[in-house]
């Protein structure tokens, strides 16, 4: 690796007492050690904040902040982004995990390819950490137009260069903020994001999550086009139709069964 840039890892935290210790451990186990973890607790009502603070006492790379009332993941990510001091920013939610070589492999790839935005393949696990035998494959190249039709970047796998793009804050929408961030990142970079076809992260599917409730796709994605991108109702509906064509007929090509 050409140099050892600092990576700011951003984690919003809300009522994840059963998972946050494992998430933190997966960051601490990284073979690349030049990172800071910025945890923002979103007014948790369980012991999540206490657990996070106990880890921060043992590891100065972990920085924990808390807000007084629940504001949502986008607010917490933006709060952390403003505090980040790294040359790269990556995201990991409080219930997800990383492969131990995730940062090392991804940073080396980005430096070798002069890449501003990258992402990786990843696996689905259940609440107990067991495999769900589902693999999401990273596209080799992801253009703005392709990302506009569907969110192909798993937020837990994405990384962008602050040096090249500046800091990117999520819009003030309750859902689909990660889609907006990566669309903006690709737009700022002026070239496609690059995908790494290695399974470097583990996405935990929890009961009641949007990923587990596909019926909510219509509402949240229409709002993405209508509210975030500012399209009129007809244009928003048209792009929502394109989204579902992509979602049902194209995206399945990048979803594999994993033994």
TrEMBL record:
Chain ranges of the Glycosyltransferase 2-like domain: 8-140
Pfam families in the record: Glycos_transf_2
InterPro entries: Glyco_trans_2-like, Nucleotide-diphossugar_trans
Coiled coil (UniProt feature): none
GO function terms (MF aspect): hexosyltransferase activity
Name listed for the protein in its UniProt record: TuaG
Lineage: Bacteria, Pseudomonadati, Bacteroidota, Flavobacteriia, Flavobacteriales
């Amino acid at each position: 690796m050409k140099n050892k840039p600092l990576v700011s890892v951003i984690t919003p935290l809300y009522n994840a007492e059963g998972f946050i210790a494992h998430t933190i451990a997966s960051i601490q186990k990284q073979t690349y050690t030049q990172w800071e973890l910025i945890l923002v607790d979103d007014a948790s009502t369980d012991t999540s904040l206490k657990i996070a603070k106990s880890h921060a006492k043992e590891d100065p790379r972990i920085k924990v902040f808390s807000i007084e009332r629940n504001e949502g993941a986008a607010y917490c990510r933006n709060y952390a982004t403003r505090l980040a001091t790294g040359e790269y920013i990556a995201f990991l939610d409080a219930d997800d995990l990383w492969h131990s070589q995730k940062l090392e492999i991804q940073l080396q790839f980005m430096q070798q390819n002069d890449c501003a935005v990258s992402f990786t393949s990843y696996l689905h696990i259940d609440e107990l950490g067991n495999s769900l035998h589902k693999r999401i494959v990273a596209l080799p190249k992801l253009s703005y137009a392709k990302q506009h039709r569907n969110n192909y970047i798993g937020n837990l796998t994405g990384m962008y260069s602050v040096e090249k793009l500046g800091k990117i804050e999520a819009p003030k929408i309750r859902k689909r903020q990660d889609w907006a961030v990566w669309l903006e990142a690709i737009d700022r970079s002026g070239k496609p994001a690059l995908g790494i076809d290695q399974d470097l992260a583990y996405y935990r599917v929890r009961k009641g999550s949007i990923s587990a409730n596909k019926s909510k796709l219509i509402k949240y994605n229409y709002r993405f086009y209508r509210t975030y991108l500012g399209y009129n109702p007809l244009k928003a509906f048209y792009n929502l139709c394109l989204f579902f064509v992509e979602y049902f007929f194209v995206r399945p090509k990048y979803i594999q069964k994993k033994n």
